[in-house]
Write a structure and sequence with these properties.
279 residues; alpha/beta; Elongation Factor Tu (Ef-tu), domain 3; Rossmann fold; Dihydroorotate dehydrogenase B (pyrk subunit), domain 3; 7 helices
């Protein structure tokens, strides 16, 4: 048996505001007992005693008031407990900031894109990019009109396009549909993306074809947040999302895609060989 020593202490925090964004997504404004200095793309481990601990990216940070903003979707035991039981005044514990942040180039022409509740880290990034005099184009993709959130907040920061698959808000289609149109008409110094891995792979392929730099925020099951347990490893690189990420160069998505394709081809050969042997 080994004992895992956590390097980062838990900071007591109090919920001061809760906003319902969609049926399953809420925004929690949390006042910390002491100040921290998170960068866009970093995350915190939120610990609820006797319930569990989850990684959540910073959607915003108001330094003067020590207020962190977290967007939490109801997807599991801990998030379900938070949404069912936590109210204004409820206490939680925050460990962080953790992980690697986005790279910010002063004065750059930037394209930001995100899908679903995974887009939350882009808001804090967009604010920081504006502080560095960057020019922003923002693309947000959602499955349905009822899933849309944060649109007005982003529109204050830059030119924002919305896509929904049901066409109820913005352009009918996917985020990729909008991205292809935008990338064919404009060139960008940097692209930033958040969302599901299959979405990020498609974005990486487009950016690679256009020779445009890309940084992505990866999602994985994170348990320790310290690079100890290995739960969040990325194959074939062996990199850990919690320690080496969650922000990575977009080229890592191409490695993941090629690795998955090789494994799929290998498995087909094994199945076919087994079928031949059985004859």
């Amino acid at each position: 048996m080994y004992v895992m020593v956590l390097r980062d202490p838990y900071i007591p925090a109090t919920i001061i505001e809760i906003n319902q964004l969609t049926e399953n997504i809420r925004e929690y404004c949390v006042k910390l007992d002491k100040s921290i200095d998170p960068e866009p793309g970093q995350f915190a481990m939120i610990w609820i005693p006797k319930v569990g601990e989850i990684p959540i990216s910073f959607a915003d940070w108001i330094c003067e008031e020590k207020i962190a903003v977290f967007v939490i979707a109801r997807v599991g035991k801990v998030t379900g407990y938070i949404q069912e039981n936590f109210k204004t005044g409820s206490k939680m514990y925050v460990r962080g900031p953790l992980g690697r942040s986005f790279t910010i180039r002063e004065g750059a022409k930037c394209l930001l894109m995100g899908g679903g509740y995974g887009l939350a880290p882009l808001y804090y990034l967009a604010k920081k990019l504006l502080e560095k005099k960057c020019r922003l184009k923002i693309i947000l993709g959602f499955k349905n009109g009822s899933d849309v959130f944060y649109v007005n907040k982003f529109r204050v920061l830059g030119d924002t396009e919305i896509s929904t698959e049901d066409g109820k808000i913005g352009v009918r289609g996917t985020l990729i549909d909008v991205l292809e149109k935008v990338m064919n008409s404009e060139r960008y110094d940097m692209v930033y993306a958040c969302g599901r891995e299959e979405l990020l792979i498609k974005i990486a392929l487009i950016c690679n074809a256009k020779n445009t730099p890309l940084e992505v925020s990866m999602e994985r099951l994170i348990k320790c947040g310290q690079g100890v347990c290995g739960t969040c490893v990325i194959e074939p690189s062996g990199l850990l999302v919690c320690r080496d990420g969650p922000v990575f160069d977009g080229k890592i998505l191409l490695e993941i895609k090629n690795h998955s394709s090789e494994n799929f081809t290998r498995s087909i050969k094994i199945v076919c060989r087994g079928a031949s042997d059985a004859k």
